[in-house]
Design brief:
By secondary structure, this protein is α/β, with parallel strands linked by helices. The chain is built from 15 helices and 18 strands.
Length: 539
């Protein structure tokens, strides 16, 4: 990939079921799938047949014979979508090289060579024992085919993202001295958006911790990393346009560039979020004149007065400043929990908002219309930067004279908030949606407001991308409109866990979430088998 920006690769679209299963990936104890015949002919311990070290093989070595058992599907997280078994020794990283068929794959080649302690040879002809990376074919840019045959590995895909995911599969196969099984893997994600988000506003996370998480989710084939860096408690990234709002503990722009670069190398888009018009307490602390107040003069927590043009100006200043810092395809505008709309009569409590709404949108406009208009204005601010924009579901409202911009993707997190609409309402309108279901995918520090730490087992056994709200799935006809999901860490009670405790607590939920976003249908392994696999790969 060289110096190209790869942050946009998460934008590709693929729907579940684009790769048909030709091998039953069963959840048999100790095994990794394969056909029934494959399991019957495999060694009794369920492992791939022992392989001849690559260093002892030559290009003249005879083709595999019936002395080798039929291979079994690899056990990886997430599971591969399709595996065609074969007879042969498989492959181990012993003495081979990594070669590439296109200079665009140099980053992928160098990374896997370093990880497997192989020599990176660049663009040369593959030989015995080598791993070859190549571009080829058409279709989903995140798909790949990996062939293990005659002591070699060949990974080919239409785009470098897919080739990268093939190297992640290979890395897991040979982890701890394992063998990549003889045969062909054909793989692609069920969902195009596979995200992990961290609230770094309420709790400061170091750049090193964030980089470690990016490496972790990259190996799991996630392709989005969300940074919620502005909220009532703090503003956590250096600002040149408004340095007065930045909290003492923050990321420098240099650190952010390193994070974005590391993510791009792993085909992960970093998605920033400056939430507005609520959750702007850190901005208000430096600019109290922007705070929303009711008729009694009481301040509304975290909310700016959206009838004041200066409120829009400061948010737009920040959006324009950070757009070049985060060059990826996506941006999150927030839009949730504007407290002006939680009172019984917003127009009576906030007459300045009511007056601004009528002036801008006509006599029938309400405070909700003005709030929708605020969100649409931020869409207009971001238009020159060509981003796909997200907003929280409770930033969309029923009725009114102003409709949310049709391009906005719904980030659906809850059905508990005032004004929240069931997901079917958005989907019936034809909107695209990502699943942040707070019932399963919210890891909230300190467990306030009846939140409980999600377990990987519950996600693995009960959640699917169609389960957007609560525990009931939306109709399957909407599957193509649900672009994926995001597991989110919220730092409400920041001191409840250390960074290390958070990392440990989210390890299995992250593994379970990616399994359900990549592989449609029932997972091949039982939960105990999945945990054992995760523990082995993490050792």
């Amino acid at each position: 990939m060289g110096t190209r920006n790869r942050a946009k690769f998460g934008a590709g679209v693929v729907t579940a079921g684009t790769v048909a299963l030709t091998v039953v990936l069963g959840g048999c104890a100790g095994g990794g799938g394969g056909t029934g015949a494959a399991r019957a002919e495999s060694p009794s311990d369920g492992k791939t047949a022992s392989a001849t070290p690559a260093s002892a093989r030559t290009s003249a070595e005879p083709s595999p014979s019936k002395s080798y058992a039929l291979s079994e599907a690899p056990q990886t997280i997430p599971s591969v979508r399709d595996f065609t078994a074969a007879r042969g020794p498989g492959w181990r990283p012993a003495g081979g090289r990594v070669v590439i068929g296109d200079e665009k794959l140099s980053d992928e080649g160098k990374l896997i060579a370093d990880e497997l302690k192989l020599k990176y040879a660049g663009k040369v002809r593959a030989g015995a024992g080598d791993v070859e990376l190549a571009l080829g074919g058409s279709g989903n840019q995140e798909s790949y085919t990996m062939t293990v045959q005659d002591g070699r590995v060949r990974i080919v895909g239409p785009g470098d993202a897919g080739v990268f995911y093939g190297t992640r599969t290979l890395k897991q196969e040979v982890h701890g001295g394992g063998t990549a099984p003889e045969g062909v893997v054909k793989d692609a994600p069920a969902k195009p958006q596979r995200g992990f988000m961290v609230d770094i506003a309420r709790k400061h996370y170091t750049a090193g911790w964030i980089k470690d998480r990016i490496r972790e989710i990259g190996d799991l084939k996630y392709n989005q990393f969300g940074l919620h860096f502005s909220d009532d408690q703090a503003f956590r990234i250096q600002s040149d346009s408004h340095p007065e709002i930045v909290s003492p503990d923050h990321l420098t722009k240099a650190q952010v560039r390193e994070i974005v670069s590391l993510a791009a190398e792993r085909h992960i888009t970093v998605i920033p979020e400056i939430d507005s018009p609520g959750h702007l307490g850190a901005v208000i602390a430096a600019h109290p004149e922007l705070q929303l107040r009711n008729t009694a003069g009481a301040a509304t927590r975290g909310a700016v007065d959206i009838s004041n043009p200066e409120s829009a100006k400061i948010v737009d200043d920040l959006l324009r400043e950070y757009a070049p810092l985060f060059p990826g395809a996506f941006w999150h505008l927030g839009g949730d929990e504007y407290q002006a709309l939680t009172v019984k009569n917003p127009e009576a409590s906030f007459p300045q908002l009511a007056a601004a709404a009528k002036k801008k949108y006509g006599a029938n406009a309400t405070v909700a219309d003005l709030t929708t208009g605020w969100l649409n204005d931020r869409v207009a601010t971001m238009k020159p930067f060509n981003r796909s924009l997200k907003a929280w579901n409770d930033g969309f409202f029923r009725g009114g004279v102003v409709k949310a911009d049709k391009s906005l993707e719904v980030a659906y997190w809850t059905g508990k908030e005032i004004g929240a609409r069931p997901p079917e309402e958005y989907l019936a309108e034809g909107r695209k949606m990502t699943n942040y279901n707070d019932e399963y995918l919210y890891y909230v520090l300190g467990q306030p407001n009846d939140f409980v730490y999600p377990t990987g087992q519950r996600i693995y056994e009960s959640w699917t991308p169609l389960v957007v709200r609560g525990t009931t799935p939306v109709p399957a006809k909407y599957d193509s409109q649900i672009l994926g999901g995001t597991f989110a860490v919220w730092s409400d009670l920041a001191n409840s866990q250390t960074q290390a405790q958070v990392a440990q607590g989210i390890r299995m939920p992250l593994a379970a979430t990616i399994q359900k976003l990549w592989y449609p249908g029932k997972p091949p392994l039982t939960w105990p088998q999945f945990v054992a696999l995760a523990n082995r790969l993490g050792s």
